[in-house]
Write a sequence for this structure.
């Protein structure tokens, strides 16, 4: 919460001196644990829409993983495909930028047998399965382009790309397509000649014109790509493409194929990247425990548990950052919620925003002025239910020129804080 770049809003108060008090106020950064719609011991969030309102992932109902689609104000939408003959199992792995398209897999019955089938879901059309039931009983959709038009994943353990023209195999080798650029023209993932030896896997970058470009090093996989396809992120796992609990190395590739090892000798995996390729999220090792991490444009790495410590209850921690919004504001993943004693999906708003007027409230921040109208002195009262750090209040004149800074990078407690203006 530092200054205007983080989504500042302005409120004005006319003073007798002719100055205007412009309150640069940010609602508190927020962390929301996503509680599943039915009893569960674990939830995971994998992707978030650009506005932070829609989150997708899965939760466990007993031993069965089930897909979820969650809205920030409306809660769970029980609309993704489920087949109770197959215990309702499935996942939601990707979402379009506007939240209108969700992709994943559902386990459905065909001629008495349960199989995994990749789907593309929209609120208007429902679920469209990308492979014909019975023809390919093991397919997953793992990512979707920002515009929702292109889906990527694996079918019969081979990488695919899908658009309205149909399914396109990207390689005859075993592997997965994990992510696509904003328009779906660039696809990234991994391929391997041996399904039982992940040390032989190779990250790839695919385009329609150039085909598949294999990247170094051997033993790594690509998990995310920038909007224009120029920046790719991923990691090298020790035992497989989903085993982040073992030592690994986080990587970033450029369009030329250059590979950089990301900062931090405890980095375990780079999992997603912003649209401009500047900010990366994933996981890192801290004191023998996995913590959600963020790599910044300046090359530094942050433990999200330290950066947003004020949002965490005692004993809680963020473990994986699986997804990030195109502008980097929202981060989703999973962590340990000590208050409920289990692994839960989370939605982290790293900035906060508000539209605030005299005596108004957005649910995150409330501002009021007294006396109103003011004479020589006034008081701005700031009410934050969860507290905030880096709060800034600035006094401007009527022409928009700064006159005085009332608060600068201040830490505000939960509750009410009175700030004098003279």
């Amino acid at each position: 919460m530092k200054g205007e770049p983080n989504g500042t809003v302005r409120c004005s108060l006319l003073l007798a001196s002719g100055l205007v008090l412009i309150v640069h106020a940010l609602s508190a950064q927020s962390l929301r644990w996503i509680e599943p719609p039915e009893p569960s011991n674990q939830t995971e969030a994998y992707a978030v829409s650009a506005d932070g309102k829609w989150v997708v992932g899965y939760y466990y109902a007993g031993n069965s993983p089930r897909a979820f689609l969650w809205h920030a104000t409306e809660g769970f939408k029980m609309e993704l495909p489920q087949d109770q003959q197959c215990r309702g199992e499935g996942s939601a792995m990707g979402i379009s930028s506007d939240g209108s398209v969700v992709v994943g897999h559902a386990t459905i019955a065909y001629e008495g047998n349960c199989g995994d089938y990749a789907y593309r879901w929209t609120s208007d059309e429902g679920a469209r399965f990308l492979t014909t039931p019975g023809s390919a009983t093991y397919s997953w959709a793992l990512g979707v382009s920002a515009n929702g038009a292109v889906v990527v994943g694996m079918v019969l353990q081979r990488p695919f790309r899908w658009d309205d023209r149909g399914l396109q195999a990207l390689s005859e080798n075993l592997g997965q397509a994990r992510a696509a650029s904003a328009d779906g023209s660039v696809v990234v993932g991994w391929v391997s000649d041996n399904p039982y030896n992940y040390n032989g896997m190779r990250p790839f970058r695919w385009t329609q014109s150039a085909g598949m470009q294999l990247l170094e090093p051997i033993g790594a996989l690509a998990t995310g790509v920038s909007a224009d396809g120029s920046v790719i992120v991923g990691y090298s796992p020790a035992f497989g493409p989903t085993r982040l609990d073992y030592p690994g190395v986080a990587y970033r590739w450029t369009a030329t194929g250059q590979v950089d090892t990301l900062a931090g000798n405890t980095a375990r995996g780079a999992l997603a990247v912003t649209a401009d390729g500047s900010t990366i999220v994933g996981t890192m090792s801290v004191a023998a425990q996995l913590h959600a991490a963020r790599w910044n444009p300046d090359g530094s790495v942050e433990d999200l548990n330290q950066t947003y410590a004020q949002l965490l209850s005692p004993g809680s921690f963020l473990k994986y950052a699986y997804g990030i919004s195109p502008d980097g504001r929202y981060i989703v993943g999973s962590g340990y919620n000590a208050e409920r004693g289990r692994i839960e999906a989370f939605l982290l708003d790293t900035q906060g925003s508000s539209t605030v007027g005299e005596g108004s409230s957005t649910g995150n921040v409330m501002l009021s002025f007294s006396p109103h109208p003011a004479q020589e002195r006034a008081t701005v009262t700031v009410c934050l239910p969860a507290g905030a750090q880096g709060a800034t209040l600035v006094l401007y004149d009527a022409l928009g020129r700064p006159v005085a800074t009332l608060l600068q990078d201040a830490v505000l407690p939960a509750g009410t804080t009175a700030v004098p203006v003279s």
Q: What stands out?
A: The two ends are 25 Å apart (CA to CA).
